Amino acid sequence: MLRFVSQRLFLIVIVLLTINFAVHWGMLMNQRGGDPENFPSAWEVASEALTQSRAFAGKALRGDLGTYETNFGELQVRDMLRQSFFASMGLLLLAAIISGLVGILLGIFVALTRFRAIPFTVLATTIVGISVPSFFAAMLLQQFIIFYFREYDRRLLSVAGFGWDYQHLVLPVLVLAARPIAYLMRTTYIVLQRTMQEDYIRTAYSKGLGRRYVVNVHALRNVAVPILTAVGVSWRFSLGILPVVEYMFAWHGLGLRMLQGIQSGQISMVVPLALVFGLTLLLGNLLLDVLYRLVDPRLREVP
Amino acid sequence: MTELAHATGRDRYRALRDALSNFSLMLGVFVVGLIILVVLFGPLIAPYNPYIVDRIEYPHYDFEEQVYIRVPVQPNADFPFGTDQVGMDILSLILHGARNTLIAGVLIAIARVVLGLFIGLAAGWFEGGLFDRLVNGLMGVLTSLPMLISGMILIFAIGIAGGMITFFLALTFLGWTEVAQYIRGEVLVARKMPYMESARSIGLREIEIAIRHVIPNILPQLFVISFLEVGAVLMLLGELALLGVFIGGGSSLDFSDIGAASVVAIPSQPEWGAMIASGFRWLRSNPHIVFFPAEVVFVAVLGFNALGEGLRSLFEKRGIKTSFIVSKRMLLILAAVFLVMGLIFRSTQPVRWFQDLAQSFSADEMAIDAEILASLEGLEPVPGRPAPYASYVAQQLKEYGFKGGVRWSDFYLLRSEWLFEPAVTPELFIAEGTVTPPQSFTYGQDFAYVMNSYGSAGVVEGNLALLRVWPDLDPNAIARLGAKSFEGQIVLLEEGNAPPEMAQAIISRGAAGLLWVAQPGAQLRDDRLSPAGLEEGATVSAPVFRINQATAEKLLLAANINPAAFRRAPNASVGTSLAPAVLMTEIRLTMQLALKEPVPIEITNMIAYHKGTDGRIGDEIIVFALSCDGLWRADGDVALPENRSPQACMAPLPIEFGRMFSKVVMDLKRPILVVLLGGGEFSYNVMTDWLSSRDNFSHLSAPGMSLQPRPAFLFQLAETQGTGAGMQISANIDPDLRIVLERATDWGKINLVEQSTDPDMPIWISTDFIPFQTAIGFDLQAPDAKQVGESLSLVMTRLLREAILTSN
Known about the structure:
The complex is a heterodimer of chains A (about 300) and B (about 800). Chain A folds into 2 domains: about 1-75; about 85-265, MetI-like (MetI-like fold, Orthogonal Bundle), CATH 1.10.3720.10. In chain A, about 80% of the residues lie in helices and about 5% in strands. Chain A has 11 helices and 2 strands, in the order ααββααααααααα. Chain A has helices at about 1-30, 40-60, 75-110, 115-130, 135-150, 165-195, 200-205, 210-250, 255-265, 265-295, 300; strands at about 65-70, 75. In chain A, β1 and β2 (about 75) form a beta hairpin. Chain A is globular, with a radius of gyration of 24 Å. The mean pLDDT of chain A is about 85. Chain B has about 800 residues and is of the alpha/beta class. Chain B is built from 24 helices and 20 strands. The longest helix of chain B has about 35 residues, at about 205-240. The N and C termini of chain B lie far apart (about 70 Å). The interface between A and B is large, with 60 and 57 residues.
C-alpha cells in the first residue's frame, strides 16, 4: 500500500509540473499578438513558457509564490491562495457530505423499497437533476428568492455573497450538491438493484439470513466500489462547476479567483490556482484509490 | 419456418414494448426530435429577423396593456420571449441560434468520440506499450484540471476570435479522455475472451479481429456515450458562455477589483451561449434575457442525456444486434438523411438574412447623393480647406456615426503637390535609319508621361535597353544590379516585374530615359503630380513614359526580340533569384517632353472611421478606399478623360452604406475605415503608402485595448471608363474572404474575376496593398448599380459582423 501511495505521489508531482508548464504556455499564447509582423509562433511561446515555468517552480519550492496586481496594489498570492482555498473547500466539503449522505441513502432506500412507483419517479427526476446546468439552477433559485422577497417582503436567504452562515451557504451548497445527489442516487439505485437480483443474494436468503444482514454484508459491500467511483465523479463534477457557482454567488474562492486571473491575464495568479485545483483533484483521486483497496480486497493484489 | 417468422415478429413486438415503456428513451426521442426539427426549420418558423435590433424604436406607454414599453421588452403577445437589451427578438434568436449551438455541440461530441475510440482501441490493443503509456500520461494531465478551466485557458490560447474552429479544437482535445478510457477497458476485456483466441486461430489478422469482433461489441455503448457526450458538451458550452467565453465572442466579464478590461460583445450571430453571455448583465432587472436561452440549453442537455440513458437501459435489458449498423441499407439511409439535411440547410442558411439586409441598399438614395456631389462641381476650394465634395461626404458619414480617422479625429488629410502639364504634345518615336519604316507613337494612346517624384522633362535620344527581373518584384533586384551603368540608354521595364524603386536606381545610373510598360488592360494616364517641383538646372533630366503593351511589343519586334522569350526566365531554374538581365538593342529612340511651369495644387483626402463593437477583432480594420477626381475641376483647367460621367465618383457608395447600417441599426463588429482619395484624375497614388504604413492606424485603437489595428481587408473602388458590373480580386486574397465574395457576387448576379484585364471591373478587392492602377466608376445611372451595391453590401455586412474571418 505504501509503495502504491508513493508511486502515485510521484506521478502527481509530474502532472503538477506539466500543469505548471501547460498553463504558462496557454496564458502566454493568449498574450502574444499586437504586432502581427513580430508574431511569436507556438514553439517560441513554448520555450518562453518553459523558462518561466522553471523559474516559477524554483521560486515556489523556496516558498515564494509571488504577487498579483489588483486595483489596490500588489498583493501576495500566498494570502490569496490560503483565503480562497478555505472558502472553496468549505463549500465543496459541505456539498460533498450532503450529496454523499442524501444521494447514497436515498439510492439505497429506493432500491430496497417495495413500491414500484418510487423507482420510476426517481429515475425520471434524477435524469432531470443530472441535466440541469448549474448556472440555470442557480439562476432559478436566486429568482425564487427575489420573487419571494417581492411578494411577501421577507428575505429568505442571501441571493449572493460570502459568509459562513446558512443565509449565504444554502444556495451555493444546494447548487453544488444538486447534480451529485442526482448522480449518486441514480448510480446507487441501479447498482444495488442489480446486485439484489444476483445469485449470491438469493443464496444468502436461502441460507436463512435476515434481510438486514444480507443487505449490509453481502449487497452493500459489493456495491461499494461503483458507488465510490460515483463519489469520485461527483467530486470532479463539483470542482468543475466551482467557478460557475462562485461566479453566480460572488463567493471569493478558488474558482472566482481563477476567472479573475484568466480574464486579467495574470499568469502569477492563474498558475498557482491551477496547481491547487489539480492538487485537490489528484489527491481526491488518490484517496479514492486507497479507499478502493481498503474496501475491496481483490484490488490489493493488483500492483 | 413459420415458427421462426412468428418468433421474430413477437420479438419485435417485445422490443417495441420495451422501448415504449422506457420513459427516458421516450423523453429523449421526443426532445431530440424536436431539436432536430428546430435546427432544420427554425429559421423558417422564426417570427422575426433576428439580426435586426430595435424592434421597439421609441419607449412608449401602452394604454391598453397599461405598461411602459421599452427595450428590453418583457415577454408579451408580440414577443413571446421578450426582446434582449438591444431589442432583438429572443424567440427568433433562439430558433436561429439552435443551428449554431447544436451543430457545435454535436460536432465536438462526435470528434471526441471518434478520437477517443481510436486512441482507446490502440492503447488497449498495445497494452503496456509505449503508446499506451503515453496516452495514459496525457490522460492524467488532461483530466487533472476541471474542463471549464482548462477549456477557458486553451480557448484563449488558440484565440477565441477563431470562433467555431477554436472551440472545436480546444474542447475536442480536452474531452476525448473519458471515451478513450472506456474503450481501452473494453478492449482489455475483449482481448481475453475465448472468441478472440479462436479468431486468431483461424488466421485473422489483428486489424481484422479488431474490426470484426471488438468494434461491434463496443458500438452500442458508443452510441450511448455519444448522446451523453453531446449533452455534456452543450452544458459545457453553456457554462463557458456564462463566463463570457462563447463562439464568435470576445470576453465580457467585469471584475472591478482586479481591473480587467472588459468588452461587452453583443451577439451578432445568434447562438445560445452568446445570448446567455450578453444577457448576463441584465440578469437581475430582466431575467428573461438569460432565462430563455439557459432554459433551452437545459432542455437540450436533458434531451440528449435522456436519450443516452434510455438507450443504455434498453441495450442492457435486451442486448442489441449490431450488424444492422454497418449494413448497406443503413449506410444508404444515412446518406439520404444527410443529403436531405444538407438541402434544407442550404435553403435556410443565415446568409439569407444578411441578404435581406443587403437588399435595403438603395440605388435611388445613392443617386441623390451623386446629384448633390455633381452640383458641387466647379466650386473652387479655398486654399488650406478641404474640397467641397470631401466635406460633403465627411458630413454625411459623421451623421451616421463615423469619426475622423486621421490623427486627432480629423477627417481631412490635405496634401500639397506640384502639377506638371505638357507645354507641347510629348513625342516618342524610333529614330530614322535604325528601322524601316520609321515608327512613331501617339501621345495619350500609346504612351503617357510619368512625373511621380522621379520623372523630369527633356529631349533625349538613346539606345533601347531591356531590363528584366527574376523573380517578379524581387526586392533585392536593385542590389543585384550592382554598379551597372545605363549611360545614354533608354530603359524599358515592366510594371509588375520590376519593383517601382528600380526607376530611380536606373536614372541615377545615367539612363537617358525610362519606359514603363503598363500592366495589361491598364488605362494609360499621365502621372502629372510630383511632391517636389523641378529644380532649375537639375543635372538629371530623364523623361519617364508609361507605354501600353501594344507599344512595347512593337518596340520588341523592331529589335527582333520575341516578347515571350523576353519574359521567360533564362534557364529552367524558375524561382531562384538572378541578377536582373539587361539586353542592349540597336534601336534608337527619341523621347520629347516639354513641360509648362509647374502649378502647386492641394489634394483633399478624406478618412472616416467607425469603431467596431468587438474588441477582440478590433485590430482587423476593413479599409474601403475609393479614388475620386477633384470634382471641382470638371469644367476647369484640366480636361477630364473622355466619355466619363461627371458623377462617376464612387463617393456616394460609402454614404449609402452608412445610411443603410445606421437605419437597420446593426452593431458593426469590425472597425471600418472609409478613405476618399482626391486627385484621381492624376493617377495620384501617394496615399497607398499612407495606407500601408501601420503607424497611421495605431491611434485608432480604443483605450485599454492592447491590439494594434491593422488593415485586414482592402476594398479599392477603382476607376474605369466602363459601366460593367463586376468585382475584381487580387490573386493572393484571403481564402475565407474569397468564399464570401464568391457567394455575394453569385447572389447579386455580377461577375467576379481574379485579377482580370477587363477595364469594366469597377471594384478591386484584396487583402494586401497594391498601387492604385486603374481608377473609378460605374455609372450610377446604369441599371446594375443596385446589383453591384447589393452584392457589395452583402460582403460588407458579413465582414463587419462575422468574426469567422481572420487574415493571419
